[in-house]
Amino acid sequence: MLVYGDVERVETVGAKQAFIRAALSEAKQLPPGIRRHEALVGAFIATGELVQSLIDAEFQERGFDARSPLHDTGMECLCVLADAIAQSWRNEAGAASLPLRFFDKLLGFEPSRAIRTKQAEGYAFYALYPESYIEAAKASGLGADTQVIGIRSIGAGLSALVAAAIGAPPPFTVRPVGHPFEREIKVDPALTAELAARRGSPFAVVDEGPGLSGSSFGAAADWLESAGIPREQIHFFPSHAGGLGPQASGRHRERWNTAPRHLVSMDDLLFRRRPPHTLAAWVEDVVGPLEGPLEELSGGAWRARRYRDEGSWPPANVQQERRKYLARAGGASWLVKFAGLGETGSRKLRQALQLHEAGFTPEVAGLRHGFLIERWQEDAPALDQASFGRDHLVAQAGAYLAFRARHFPAADRHGADLDSLRRMAIYNTGQALGAEAAADLERRLSSASALEGEVRRVCTDGRMHPWEWLVSGSRLIKTDALDHSAAHDLIGHQDIGWDIAGAAVELDLSHGEVSRLCGIVQQEGGHPVSPDLLAFLIPCYLAFQMGAHAMGADALGEGPEAVRLRQAAVRYGNRLRALESRDGLLGIAQEQDEAAAS
Predict the structure, then answer these.
(1) How many distinct structural domains can be found in the chain?
(2) CA 52 from chain center: how many Å?
(3) Tell me, what CATH number does 440's domain have?
(4) pLDDT at 6
(5) In which domain, by residue range, is 339 found?
């Protein structure tokens, strides 16, 4: 199935430099505390994106990685900031000074140059904290004679953190290429010979993961071993303690299981230390003293709070859920959810405040180093557990989507174009429903190029499922409204029609209800809703959800959660198959109109 993807942004070096300088200026002006520290981390994350994109551009020009003035300067910048983060963390988030040479080097890159940057997934989605690598390096026993190797993208910054923590020289970074399950490293032979001369020293390979195959870690270690580095001298710095995924080679799996690995998990970092370096202390900084320990709601555990019995639980892709907790303070309950480090979290805070002020989402208390704190609606049942009038449902869903369409333009942030959605839908349909169904869908979706001009990208919601809405008296409260239009999938920011399609499918809207919803969004959102574009997006939405649920089930293997996900995938597939014989916007709901007429 086609589900995941990385969205690139095109921006200038100068824009990135300006953002980094602004973040560092903010950090300097803030009083000692976690907010100053998180501003420093935001600058570090942006610098990592800048540096890795510049090094990647050189790699594309040469076809291999090599030492260069640009590479060395970029990694020196990252190491300076990494050392500042380590100082700030040791000094209980106090002040950390930067040498003047940092700004000279940072501003030395040509500001007019256009670069392609990628969001660092770990920092944005998976609660990967830079401080974890600092702590892991300090506990590793490795010293200043270590040669640190970072695996780009995110490994460029992570390797600088490891080097700074142990006093090692700036790392060298590599970009694994090739099939995701069979990566390989292409490096200047002169550099390989240089490293081979240091075979008596330890080597540290740094990245997030490993994922399904661990082939990036494996490729880097293969390269070092081929250069004569003894296997026992190769240390790994991963982001989790698990083994390699099911697609790993036997050779890589055997090495991984015996190699020295160093890591500190988010739980170890934020729950098993003393204040102020704990998540509880950060939450108390916002809502006051806690009445008890934070309660885990991650991995679908939130459903036990919303549903009377497990049999009524909706499906959840538990491996992809954000980390989240329930906090109680001052007689109130608060949801503490990972929203992203750096600019990712700040952007979501701004959106959350705007949505709440407009009356659509819960009250927001604040953001602390990646975790957004908002009111937990204790007594409000989910929409699939309560009665709610259909007219009110359409009206409030329409007002919500119109607000997003008007106030959340995607600006320079991109999503999959219609041809990419088309290819995804056809491929997923072929995988699940067969070649004939895929051929029928290919004919139905032949208008991608003609419709592209009608797309107006916004920060879509992406989760219109009934369990994502809470019923509070006569109003609906939208939850989980911030995370999904810039998630780790191939969809990204789309026309508001993507959310209209989602609402039509997930809320079982009839033709008349869809028409009314479109009218509200068009009138209040200030942008036409194209029926042809919506007719195109509905099968794409169904095919994407079918693929996402099927992949989630496959990742889990067996058990009740996998069963729920597979059942959901089948439901989406059945609705997609039903479209083949329908000519309206929503063959999936036409039965409702026909039943009402009879």
Answers:
(1) 3
(2) 18
(3) 3.90.1200
(4) 75
(5) 321-378
